[in-house]
Amino acid sequence: MEYQFSTVCSNAKKYDQVIWLVDADTIIKEIKESSKASKIQEVKGYLEEAGGMDNVHILFNTPCLEFWFLLHDRYTGRFYAECGPVEALLTRSTILPGYKKTEKYFKNPKQNIYQRLKPNLKTAISNAMRLGDFDIDEYESAKAETFKVFKILGIDV
Predict the structure, then answer these.
(1) What is the pLDDT tens value at each position of the chain, 157 positions in all?
(2) What is the pTM of this model?
(3) Which end of the chain lies in a sparser environment, N or C, as judged by fewer CB atoms within 10 Å?
């Protein structure tokens, strides 16, 4: 995370807006495997420092970006510590059947993941808003803050 945050800070000096989209599954794993307090303090430090920069936005998905995709298909407030179960749900979803977390899947023009998700974007935003904001002290809760990208960039959906 340190290298990524350093890159965010460097980019903040060059760009109007910097968005760091964080999949929290790795953070949760590190919290459980190491000193819980030190990892939480590390994340709090990044959030505090970013809070002092008007053009930096740190957005979390718990556990991963695929949870945001899932919210296009259905509402769930269930917490998943890992991405695997969410990917399995997506594979069986009506929106992204056969989903695979691969570069080939994302770049396949026949799959066109973005066009397949777009008709359900308002549903996903509504579902994500119901989950509330990420709080590192309550890291074991379902969150998908990806929807905030649209507001940050001034995109009307």
Answers:
(1) 899 999 999 999 999 999 999 999 988 888 888 767 788 899 999 999 999 999 999 999 999 999 999 999 999 999 999 999 999 999 999 899 889 999 988 888 888 898 999 999 999 999 999 999 999 999 999 999 999 999 999 999 8
(2) 0.92
(3) C
